[in-house]
């Protein structure tokens, strides 16, 4: 069992090393690092929304990297690797170097070959999802990434806001996931705890609450931060009161709030620069 877990990790680790090198090379050569970072996190945000629908809600496929003993936690970890790292890094590489449709086609084929290999190795499983869907959506996402980058460069206020929102919701999801892995934080309303239920609830909150936070925090003022803090406290206290949230310690809450608010402050500067664009929008 232990050796099997190690074998399952290797394909994910090897793919991770390749994409880490690709990411380093892209940012090393980039002449527009700030906008490329915004683009990377924007793509990741869209990917997280996609995974919420396909994996968390409708169980389209399953990752089996065997990094974690708990099956659902391990599945989500595989999802994070794919949607936070592998695909967004490749999309950024293509857009940053202005590579054409032939390269987009090549990497789309690359990912479906990886998917088929992972299925053969038993480290990934399709349920109702089909490899042809992977090819089509990845190819379209590469094209969409180019369009999104052009809109970021043109300082389109709507695109900037959505990008800022994605920064916050990706941070929210990753923070809550890490707390769940550490067994410090979990959602669920039944007497019998379910990790699937945990991620359905936590990811839904992580989609909706950051949207409000982004609307307030896009403008740099103290009232926006106070309102954001009060909203997060209200949501958590309501969930605690309804017994839909369990925490090891109440000290977890201020840690989470600090991470979200502190990071959002930096994200706003990365997305909007000096903040003038935010105030105009």
Provide keyphrases for this structure.
4 strands, 281 residues, disordered C terminus, 2 domains, two-stranded antiparallel sheet, mainly alpha
Written description of the protein model:
The protein is mainly α. The chain is 77% helix and 4% strand. Strands 1-2 form a two-stranded antiparallel ribbon. It has a two-stranded antiparallel ribbon with strand order 3-4. It is globular and about 50 Å long. Mean pLDDT is 89; it is low at 275-281.
Strand order of the largest sheet: 1-2
Largest sheet: 2 strands, antiparallel
Q: Cα-atom Rg, whole angstroms?
A: 19 Å
Strand content: under 5%
Count every beta strand, where a strand is a DSSP E run of 2 or more residues.
4
Shape: globular
Which ranges are low-confidence, i.e. pLDDT below 50, for 5 or more consecutive residues?
Answer: 275-281
Please give the count of helices.
Answer: 10
Mean pLDDT: 89
Overall domain count: 2
Please report the distance between the alpha carbons of the first and last residues: 55 Å
Could you say which structural class the secondary elements and strand pairing correspond to?
Answer: mainly alpha
Q: Report the helical percentage.
A: over 70%
Order of SSEs: HHEHHEHHEHHEHH
Blueprint (SSEs and pairs):
Elements: H1 2-29, H2 33-57, E1 61-63, H3 71-96, H4 101-121, E2 124-126, H5 131-153, H6 157-181, E3 185-187, H7 195-217, H8 222-241, E4 245-247, H9 252-272, H10 276-280
Antiparallel strand pairs: 1-2, 3-4
Task: Summarize the model shown.
The protein is mainly alpha-helical. It folds into two domains: 152 residues, no CATH class; 124 residues, no CATH class.
């Amino acid at each position: 069992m232990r050796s099997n877990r190690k074998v399952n990790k290797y394909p994910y680790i090897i793919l991770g090393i390749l994409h880490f090198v690709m990411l380093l090379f892209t940012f090393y050569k980039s002449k527009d690092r700030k906008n490329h970072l915004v683009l990377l996190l924007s793509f990741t945000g869209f990917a997280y929304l996609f995974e919420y629908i396909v994996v968390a809600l409708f169980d389209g496929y399953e990752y089996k990297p065997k990094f974690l003993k708990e099956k659902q936690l391990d599945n989500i970890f595989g999802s994070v690797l794919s949607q936070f790292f592998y695909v967004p890094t490749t999309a950024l590489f293509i857009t940053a170097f202005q590579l054409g449709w032939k390269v987009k086609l090549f990497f789309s084929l690359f990912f479906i070959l990886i998917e088929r290999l992972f299925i053969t190795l038993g480290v990934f499983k399709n349920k109702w999802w089909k490899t042809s869907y992977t090819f089509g959506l990845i190819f379209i996402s590469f094209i969409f990434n180019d369009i999104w980058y052009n809109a970021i460069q043109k300082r389109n206020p709507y695109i900037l806001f959505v990008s800022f929102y994605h920064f916050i919701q990706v941070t929210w999801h990753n923070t809550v996931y890490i707390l769940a892995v550490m067994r410090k934080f979990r959602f669920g309303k039944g007497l019998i705890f379910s990790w699937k239920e945990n991620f359905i609830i936590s990811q839904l909150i992580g989609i909706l609450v950051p949207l409000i936070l982004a609307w307030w925090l896009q403008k740099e003022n103290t009232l926006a931060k106070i309102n954001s803090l009060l909203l997060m406290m209200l949501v958590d206290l309501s969930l605690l009161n309804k017994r839909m949230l369990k925490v090891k310690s109440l000290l977890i809450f201020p840690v989470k709030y600090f991470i979200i608010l502190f990071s959002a402050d930096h994200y706003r500067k990365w997305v909007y620069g000096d903040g003038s664009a935010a105030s105009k929008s």
